[in-house]
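Researcher: Good morning. I'm working through a list of sequences from a screen, and I'd like to move beyond sequence-only analysis. For each chain I'm collecting a predicted structure so we can compare shapes side by side. This is the next one on the list. No need for commentary yet; just the structure.
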Amino acid sequence: MEAATIAGVVHQAICQAAVELRPDVLAAMREARAREGSSRGRDVLDQLLQNAAIAATDRVPICQDTGTVWAWIELGAEECIVGDLRSAIDEAVASAYRESGLRMSVARDALLDRGNTGDNTPAFIDLTLRPGPGATVNVMLKGGGSDNASVLKMLDPADGIDGVQRFVLETVEAKATGACPPLIVGVGVGATFDKVGLLAKRALLRAVGSSADDERIVRFEEELLTAINATGIGPAGVGGDTTALAVHIATAPCHIAAMPVAVNMGCSAMRSVSMNVG
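Model: Good morning. Structure tokens for this chain:
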């Protein structure tokens, strides 16, 4: 598979995600508006829905923070990539941001040079293998507010599911307002220190309203969502019943002495696109 083919999909996905709220998120927000008990919460949800409609119709960004680009390429094990994938994707990012008039938000170096790169590169790329041919290209535009609300903690195995619940609720209570609710709360449990954050971010790609594969996770997600919405933080943090639209949990194996947990929040402008190639 040509690197240029994958990069072309990334370009298309950026241009779409920047102006179109994900359909599942849009539907969930409409449902939340119908059941929201707070008048201020309803007003905020009305404004968010109106904003999404204007963005889609006028092809303008849903949010002024057009984010960093995360591209997760799930490559079929029967494929090989021909060409320089990183360079091709970075070229696609620079082109898409320039052509769509999107804000450039990437600093050259987090510590040593905070100057803007001027083209929103580099993209942040993950490449994994899956069975079969073709590839799935997942692209997310992640704003600073929601990513800054991310928290990772290495729990003890003895903390158990109750410890995970406490950690998630504490994180939401402390960070939700700055992440622009209503949220999708991605939770990763397992793997290692460097991988658990990816679990949480990948969980955000799952469609709102879809069910996890394990009934125990389904129940835990429902319990967490109920508890999060009971905080009363509400849309935009002004109070109400809808702090989150969904909680999505992804789990993985881990060391017997560890239980890594990460929370990554998706804001009300949940911008991601997944496309199959080949």
